Every structure is written in structure tokens, then in C-alpha cells.
Amino acid sequence: MDFDNILNRRNTNTWKWDGEGKDALYPMGTADMDFPMPQEIQHALQEKISQGILSYAADKSYFADAVVSYLNKRDGLQLNPKSVLPGTSLMSVYKLLLDAFSTEGDGVILQTPVFGGIFQVTKNNNRKIYENQLVFDEHTKTWHVNMEELEQFCSLQDTKVLVITNPGNPTANVFTKEELEEMVRITSENGVVIISDEVHSDLYYDDRKHTSILNVTDRAVLLTSSAKVFGIPGLKTAITIIPNEELFKVFAHVNMRAKMDVIDLGLVGMSAGYTQCKYYIDELRTYLQKSKDICVDWFSHHDIKVTLSTPQASYLFWLDFRKWNLDNTTLESLLRKYGIVFSNGVEFGGSHNEGYMRMNVATSHAQLLAALNALEKCYQENLGSFIKL
Description:
Elements: H1 15-19, E1 26-27, H2 39-50, H3 61-75, E2 84-88, H4 90-101, E3 107-110, H5 116-124, E4 128-131, E5 135-137, E6 142-144, H6 147-154, E7 159-165, H7 177-190, E8 193-197, E9 221-224, H8 227-230, E10 237-241, H9 245-257, H10 264-276, H11 278-301, E11 307-308, E12 316-320, H12 328-337, E13 340-341, E14 343-344, E15 356-360, H13 365-386
Parallel strand pairs: 1-13, 3-4, 3-7, 7-8, 8-9
Antiparallel strand pairs: 2-10, 5-6, 9-10, 11-12, 12-15, 14-15
């Protein structure tokens, strides 16, 4: 793959470029890559369409087989394909998971900052949100769980669910096996169900390996998709894996009542990715490793009063602009004047994210460096009038 030769995505009805990033030089907000999908996926989709038939899928077992085979090899799991349920879009499935394991008014623990979709869906479905705010280590620039607070929230009678994102979105942080084991201990003792969003688990840096929640316990829900790693979010296909028979039955019943189905093209495209495109993941990981190294090196040599959280995985990096002393609305407007669009930190759960932005680095190295240089120019030209240090 030549990841330096990115697609021209302007005027393709792509939200990242034609919606949120309209008229921007550096749209780096939405979690969508600028790289082409693997040819094997494209060919599989074209072959399906060439049949002239897009109907209801009769057989979904090949999809479950492909997912389980891939994850078992990658993570050393022993999953059964019967534990897999495909669904349409990650957040639609998450809504059903909330319905399965909690009711309106129940407590749901979110470890903020957290993906804005998770925060909004939880709030919009009238769950009581307990914010187990992640703790920032100033020395390592990494994020960790406040276990004492987590235990307090789990001990509350109305708490039913803990949601984790691993790797973290937006923190690009990775949970260690020890951290996962401690969270499993706490939730197990209090009858709280863990839902683990692992949608970015294919892309780790510096030889780190992913530890899934299902490496630690089978009494949890894994929510994932290959949409991010293959650049195919438009297929709107999510994957729920629940090895525990009791939990599976609860969710399967809610899933049946909602008549949740899946787009046949999603099954076809993702199966092709899981069975034929490991090379693409490996090459993408190598390219993004260099992107990560570029960012870490750039921020270490350019003093613009912005802190980059240490990226351990994913292509979504968390930037702390608080020393600029701007509210996020003003900051967003200022960055756009220089062609830059980042995701507004306030979207990721709570007022404590004021002053933060999420940057998507899944673009060419040339585009990434140009955006960073534009960011430096923004800082230099506005220091006197906007920034009080």
C-alpha cells in the first residue's frame, strides 16, 4: 500500500471533507481515514453488487467465522462463532446493549474523556451518568483509571453498567492486563456488566499488544468493528461478542425485539477484510507508527504550549490547549482560520474537557506535517492578542 498517495475525498459526500471539514485545508476531526480501502474489500463489494441483488441476508455464519478466526489469532482467544451478533452501526448496537443491561434511571459509568457518541447515547436514553474521570500522569503523559472512585460508583445500588474504551478514544491510551483485571474484580463483586468498546484495537504502537476484556473474563460484552482499520465506516456494521451464555440470552432477546439486522454489504466487506487483508493492517500499523513518531517528535521540538497525550494506540490523538486560555468555541473558530478542523473536546463528556481537542492523524505524512506547521503559525500569529500565559 502507498499510504502517501491519498485519495482526493473532496466532493465525495464524505462528512470529514464535505461536511465538518468543508472548505478546510486540514480536516482532522472525524474518525475516518484518508486512505483507500483494501482492494480485496472493494472487489468483494463489486462482485456482490454485480449480482444485481441486494436483499436480506439468509446466512450470516460466514461473517461470524471470519470475525472469530481473526480475533482468536490476534488476541489468543478461544471464541465460539455462536457468541457473535452483527448489527447496524456501533451506536445503534450500544443503545440496545443499554436496554439489555439497564433501564431508564439506572447508573452507567463512563470513563471520561470518552467517545462523544457513547456519552450522548447514554445521556439521550435517560441513564444516570457517573463520570469516572481518567487521571492524567504528568510525567508519562498517559491516562489511568481512578480505581477508588470506580469502586465507589460500582457499589451504588443503581449502577448496572461500566463502559470502557480500549484503546481509549480520545486519549489513545491502552489498558494493561492488570488494570482490566482490577476493573473486572470490582464490577464482578458488584454485579455490574462491562461493555468494552475495542473498535481501535488493531492499531498499537511501539510493539504493544492488545489485551481484550475477553482475555480477562468471559462475563463481559465486546463491542467492535473493522470499519476504522479498513476505512469502511459507511458500511455501518458493528460486532457484538458475548461468550457468557446468560448475558448473551439477555442481549439476544432485546436484539430480537428491536429486529436489529445488518446490511448484507457490511457482512461481505468486513469478511473480506478479516480473511484477506491482514497485510493491510500490518502496513497501516507501520505507516501510522511513523505518523505517531512524527507527532511526538514535532511537539517535543515546537513549544506552542500544547501537550500531546502519549499515543499508545489508534490514530486519534488528544491535545491539551488549556494554556492558550481559550474556550473551545473560540479555539475552534481560531483554528479554522488556519484551515484546521479538530474534534471539539467538549464532545467527549463533561466540562472538564474544555481546552482539549482530538486530532485524527490517519492521513499522509505530508498532510500531517503541513497541519502541524499551520498550528504553529496559528500560535505564533495570535500569541499577543489571544493567549495569556
